[in-house]
Amino acid sequence: MLQPKRTKFRKAFKGRIHGNAKGGTTLTYGEIGLKALQPERLTARQIEAARRAIARHTKRAGRMWTRVFPDIPVTKKPAEVRMGSGKGGIELWVARVKPGRIIFELGGVNPQIAKEALQLGAAKLPIKCKVVSRIA
């Protein structure tokens, strides 16, 4: 699963995800991609599940790029623990995704198969996505 090798700070604030994506909104590497339409935190597990679904459907043909990386730590305290005594330990890693952000890109794959694969990948994510392409 994806996570940073090292970070500058151990824990992060929750924060809010508002506004549209500032960068990463156009296809850079491949011919077809998956674009986020809602703001959300994508976990490393969700990104990996979508990546596997896409890779399986394309039979690992062509090339795939993952344009998001889970670099924000999310902490959680154990169940039934009293208030106080600091913030909990790191439970998972997430990527903050804003509307308009390209999540995955595919290149060198039949456009019809690539579209089906990206729709399967989108089904693994908790947000609405659309398939964008530079072909048509």
N to C succession of SSEs: EEHEEEEHE
Instruction: Work out the radius of gyration.
Output: 17 Å
CATH architecture of the domain at 32-78 and 88-133: Alpha-Beta Complex
CATH topology of the domain at 32-78 and 88-133: Aldehyde Oxidoreductase, domain 3
Which descriptor suits the 3D outline? elongated
> Separation of termini?
34 Å
Strand portion: 25-35%
Number of strands: 7
Helix amount: 10-25%
Given helix and strand content, the structural type is alpha+beta
Average pLDDT level: 96
Brief sketch in words of this structure:
The protein is an alpha+beta fold.
How would you describe what is shown here?
The protein is an alpha+beta fold. It has a domain at 32-78 and 88-133: Aldehyde Oxidoreductase, domain 3. The protein is built from 2 helices and 7 strands. The protein has helices at residues 44-57, 111-123, and strands spanning 32-36, 40-43, 63-66, 72-76, 89-97, 102-107, 129-133. Helix 1 packs antiparallel against helix 2 (111-123). The chain is elongated, with a radius of gyration of 17 Å.
Secondary-structure blueprint:
Elements: E1 32-36, E2 40-43, H1 44-57, E3 63-66, E4 72-76, E5 89-97, E6 102-107, H2 111-123, E7 129-133
Antiparallel strand pairs: 1-6, 1-7, 2-5, 3-6, 4-5
Helix pairs in contact: 1-2
What key attributes describe this structure?
Aldehyde Oxidoreductase, domain 3, 2 helices, 7 strands
